[in-house]
């Protein structure tokens, strides 16, 4: 037992690596010009509609770059819609290649892949319309797309063209063959059959090759017993046989020999072609073409071989000619091992494969759930399935391309395909398959998972788990009610009512079950319905609608996976990857935008932001702006709910002047910025400072006799008298010199934010007009010292005093933060707290849209304070911060759940708390080390915080510095340093001036306050 398990493990490891090799070949086939590829890939189809479905799916893959563009792809239905057999279909392929060839030697030096996929799929009816070839395989490809048999064929066979000189590889469309292409070397004349070694217990249920002494196929053995296979000599010492995989290689000589049967003078002869390609002879590729190639075959045996259709004179004549041209060639046996043969033959096999055996193929990345919105641990198997949280699916059932909604229950051994099941209980053993017809109506086909639709009524065939005769008896139906012809195959029984909606069609499917199994009487109603058989419904199916259905469901599921990834705070790369290489459909984007509008901020902003990175150009910019607008609007709305216009406020003082310090940040910067602080809370350590001996932030307010509100920005020399409420309400223009003052008026309830009110009414309530001026003394713009926010704080503080309002510190902070949102600057709270409240403080908040700010004053010993004051210095870089949107970049990384950003935002808060601890302990050296640590973290958060100029300034005085850090977001403005003991600020100033001369880089005096 242990040896067998070890052998299986080795086999699986080999096949996994072989598949990786095949994927590498596949990727090379997409990107490398000189990589040897198939010249033709040709699929056969049962009718025009099925061919159309194949063609649509091939074209979709070509558009996505998932197929080699230089290969010629074609889908060929049986001529005139008649079933001409797989051999007839192969002749039709040859006719097509000749028509598209510029030379008479149309098969020489051509590598051709033919996949026979034109069957009716009678044993798996849910794949009849779109073809078994495009049925799902339970895995996501590395490109994120759901795999199908076709995709697996293309991938696994990508290495074969390099192994053959020319010729045609023919595959059966319902067999997945896994092996390493390096084991194939077809450099000889004739044909070859690719076989794999399988246990004789498996071989007894399939075709087996018996090799001759020269390594050619001697005989074909079909479903022989173990004893017979052993007696004949088909079983090797390991108990394995050479399994017929349906993969056959024909070189150009064999192709030319076959082609000679349907041409004259190297051109297609219509008479000869019609002789071999017709519904009566129905030539089989596997029976009629291969049998003459077996070394032990005789012509007499050949004429007795069971045909694909029925014995007739036309078939005998065709076989006679085929024998004459093919019997001189041999069929080489190419046995590959380790290898795997997976048959998608019947619904029963499909269910077993998907439910019981799927875990056996985990080495190929097969899994139980492929494309579903369902995160529950229920162990059922599904592919492209949308599930409600209330639904239940048995672990023994399989769902594909379906919605299972409401309180639906799917019992054991069910296969549910292409339907919407809502609030229903589907009994065990049932298969349901929905189809939209070309006339836009619907049919839902129901049958038992174990049924064989090829069966005859007279053969005591089962239908829905009981004998068909018993079913008819229970349903009170006669065979004349279901068949118009003498042969009573299930395939042709008119069982399924045609309905206007999927829901009605599903109701009738369940009624049919109740009629035949439970004996309920719906006979009259049933007979009054227009009904179709399995055969008719698949032929009348609208295959485009099937593909559209699958694609729309695929996108809906991916949309929910995307939203779930956002809810789980997955990073943007992982969230976007759920859409695979196919990317985001336009309709899905629209649906996501609708979801965003109805979602709370955390989800809304991330949907906008993530989508902004998935689209191009201006649309991406608009979506990013929508993200930050949502943050501002939500924060602002929450804060301004209590900030309504107060008609009772009036001017109480004639003159008010407010002077405030600026601030320097030591630890935790960026953690105070929405949405990080609203989701996690923030922690900042900063201190207020005077600059060059003064408080540089100045706001002056005074009563005036003019009937206006006069605003002045003395820094810019701007002055304007306002007599319009609408003008004052417009405060989110970043180029407006008065935006800050206007926002302060709104936040102070002097004017309404949105309501319409007469300007004269406002002045009457106030008692007069007034003048408001702002000034930043001696500090250049973009300093990094928080001047804008502190200026906003000074406005709020000054207006409160001017109007006779008493505001707590927290009310001051909240109103300033409200101003930031009104102006759409999106800033945080640490700047205004730093300037409005003197001293060194640790400022913290808890999560919440409305930030409740707690400022804890840090008390340090006087000697420690004095030492810190002496060693602390500010260096002006001579440049404003770069004109790039640092806020959006840093906050955007957080919104995108960038792991590095999230880690840094946490770490800088930890550093802030440790700084407080070391300052209180009087340990300035430890404090400076933490300052350096913060600087490194800041660079990890955003490398734009430094540049060549900043690096050179620090480098020029590095020997003098114990600690260094930027002020604000960086990129320019001021730098802060802590000198090593023994160095003075004057020495630092001289060093800086010596290096940078008159460039504007200089040391400024600062003082803790």
TrEMBL record:
Boundaries of every GDP-fucose pyrophosphorylase domain copy: 106-500
Keyword Acetylation assigned: no
Record keywords, A-Z: ATP-binding, Kinase, Nucleotide-binding, Nucleotidyltransferase, Transferase
GO biological process: GDP-L-fucose salvage
Protein name per the record: Bifunctional fucokinase/L-fucose-1-P-guanylyltransferase
GO MF assignments: ATP binding; fucokinase activity; nucleotidyltransferase activity
Keyword Cell cycle: no
Pfam families hit by this protein: Fucose_pyrophosphorylase, GHMP_kinases_N
Every GHMP kinase N-terminal domain range: 768-839
High-level lineage: Bacteria, Bacillati, Bacillota, Clostridia, Lachnospirales
Entry-linked InterPro entries: GDP_fucose_pyrophosphorylase, GHMP_Kinase-Related, GHMP_kinase_C_sf, GHMP_kinase_N_dom, Ribosomal_Su5_D2-typ_SF, Trimer_LpxA-like_sf
Organism: Candidatus Galacturonatibacter soehngenii
């Amino acid at each position: 037992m242990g040896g067998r398990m070890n052998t299986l493990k080795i086999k699986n490891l080999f096949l996994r690596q072989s598949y990786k090799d095949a994927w590498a070949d596949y990727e090379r086939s997409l990107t490398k010009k000189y990589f040897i590829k198939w010249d033709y890939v040709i699929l056969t189809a049962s009718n025009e509609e099925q061919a159309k479905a194949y063609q649509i799916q091939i074209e979709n893959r070509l558009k996505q770059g998932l197929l080699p563009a230089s290969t010629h792809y074609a889908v060929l239905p049986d001529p005139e819609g008649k079933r001409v057999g797989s051999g007839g279909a192969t002749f039709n392929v040859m006719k097509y290649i000749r028509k598209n060839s510029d030379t008479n030697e149309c098969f020489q030096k051509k590598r051709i892949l033919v996949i026979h996929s034109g069957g009716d799929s009678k044993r798996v009816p849910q794949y009849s319309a779109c073809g078994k070839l495009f049925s799902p395989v339970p895995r996501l490809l590395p490109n994120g797309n759901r795999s199908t048999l076709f995709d697996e064929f293309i991938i696994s066979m990508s290495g074969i063209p390099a192994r053959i000189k020319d010729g045609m590889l023919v595959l059966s469309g319902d067999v997945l063959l896994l092996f390493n292409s390096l084991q194939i070397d077809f450099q000889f004349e004739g044909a070859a059959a690719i076989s794999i070694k399988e246990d004789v217990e498996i071989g007894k249920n399939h075709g087996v090759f018996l090799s001759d002494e020269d390594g050619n196929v001697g005989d074909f053995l079909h479903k022989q017993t173990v004893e017979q296979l052993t007696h004949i000599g088909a079983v090797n010492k390991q108990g394995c046989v050479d399994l017929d995989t349906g993969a056959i290689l024909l070189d150009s000589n064999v192709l030319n020999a076959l082609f000679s049967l349907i041409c004259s003078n190297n051109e297609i002869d219509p008479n000869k072609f019609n002789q071999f390609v017709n519904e009566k002879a129905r030539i089989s590729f596997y029976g009629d073409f291969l049998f003459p190639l077996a070394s032990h075959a005789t012509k007499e045996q050949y004429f007795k071989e069971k045909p694909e259709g029925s014995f007739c004179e036309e078939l005998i004549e065709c076989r006679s000619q085929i024998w004459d041209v093919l019997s001189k060639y041999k069929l080489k046996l190419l046995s590959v091992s380790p290898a795997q043969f997976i048959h998608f033959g019947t619904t029963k096999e499909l269910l077993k494969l998907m439910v019981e055996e799927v875990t056996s193929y985990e080495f190929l990345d097969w899994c139980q759930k492929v494309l579903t919105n369902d995160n529950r641990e229920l162990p059922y198997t599904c592919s492209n399935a949308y599930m409600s949280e209330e639904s239940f699916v048995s672990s023994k059932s399989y769902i594909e391309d379906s919605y299972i909604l409401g309180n639906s229950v799917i019992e054991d051994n069910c296969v549910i395909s292409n339907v919407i099941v809502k609030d229903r209980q589907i009994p065990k053993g049932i298969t349901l398959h929905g189809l939209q017809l070309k006339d836009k109506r619907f049919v839902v086909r129901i049958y038992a998972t174990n049924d064989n639709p090829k069966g005859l009524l007279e053969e005591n065939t089962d239908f829905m788990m009981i004998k068909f005769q018993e079913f008819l008896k229970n349903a009170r139906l006669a065979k004349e009610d279901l068949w118009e012809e003498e042969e009573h195959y299930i395939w042709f029984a008119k069982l399924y009512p045609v309905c206007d909606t999927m829901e009605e069609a599903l109701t009738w499917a369940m009624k049919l079950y109740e009629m035949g199994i439970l004996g309920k009487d719906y006979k009259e109603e049933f007979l009054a319905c227009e009904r179709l058989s399995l055969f008719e419904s698949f032929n009348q199916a609208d295959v485009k609608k099937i593909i559209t259905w699958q694609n729309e469901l695929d996108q809906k599921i991916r949309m929910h996976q995307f939203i779930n990834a956002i809810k789980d705070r997955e990073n943007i790369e992982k969230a976007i990857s759920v859409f695979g290489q196919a990317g985001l459909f336009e309709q899905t984007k629209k649906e996501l935008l609708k979801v965003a509008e109805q979602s709370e901020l955390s989800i809304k902003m991330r949907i906008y932001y993530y989508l902004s990175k998935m689209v191009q150009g201006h649309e991406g910019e608009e979506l990013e702006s929508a993200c930050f607008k949502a943050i501002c609007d939500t924060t602002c709305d929450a804060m301004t709910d209590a900030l309504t216009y107060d008609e009772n406020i009036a001017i109480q003082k004639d003159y008010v002047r407010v002077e405030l310090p600026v601030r320097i940040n030591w630890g935790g910067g960026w953690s105070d910025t929405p949405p990080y602080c609203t989701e996690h809370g923030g922690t900042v350590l900063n201190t207020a400072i005077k600059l060059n001996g003064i408080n540089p932030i100045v706001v002056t307010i005074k009563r005036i006799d003019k009937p206006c509100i006069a605003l002045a920005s003395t820094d810019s020399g701007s002055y304007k008298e306002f007599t319009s409420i609408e003008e004052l309400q417009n405060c989110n223009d970043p180029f407006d010199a008065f935006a800050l003052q206007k926002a302060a008026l709104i936040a102070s309830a002097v004017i309404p934010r949105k309501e319409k009110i007469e300007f004269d009414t406002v002045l009457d309530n106030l008692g007069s007009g007034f003048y408001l001026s702002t000034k930043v003394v001696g500090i250049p713009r973009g300093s990094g010292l928080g001047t804008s926010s502190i200026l906003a704080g000074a406005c709020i503080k000054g207006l409160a005093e001017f109007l006779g309002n008493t505001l707590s510190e927290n009310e001051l902070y909240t109103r300033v933060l409200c101003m930031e949102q009104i102006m759409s600057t999106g800033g945080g709270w640490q700047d205004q707290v730093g300037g409005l409240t003197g001293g060194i403080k640790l400022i913290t908040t808890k999560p919440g849209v409305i930030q409740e700010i707690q400022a804890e004053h840090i008390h340090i010993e006087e000697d420690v304070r004095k030492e810190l004051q002496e060693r602390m210095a500010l260096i002006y870089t001579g440049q404003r911060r770069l004109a790039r949107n640092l806020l959006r970049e840093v906050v955007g990384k957080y919104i995108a759940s960038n792991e590095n950003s999230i880690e840094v935002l946490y770490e800088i808060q930890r550093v802030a708390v440790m700084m407080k601890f070391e300052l209180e302990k009087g340990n300035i050296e430890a404090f400076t080390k933490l300052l350096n640590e913060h600087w490194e973290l800041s660079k990890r958060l955003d490398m734009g915080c430094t540049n060549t100029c900043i690096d050179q300034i620090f480098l020029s005085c590095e020997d003098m510095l114990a600690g260094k850090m930027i002020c604000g977001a960086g990129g320019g403005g001021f730098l802060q340093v802590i000198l090593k003991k023994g160095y003075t600020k004057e020495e630092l100033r001289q060093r800086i001036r010596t290096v940078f001369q008159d460039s504007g880089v200089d040391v400024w005096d600062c003082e803790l306050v």
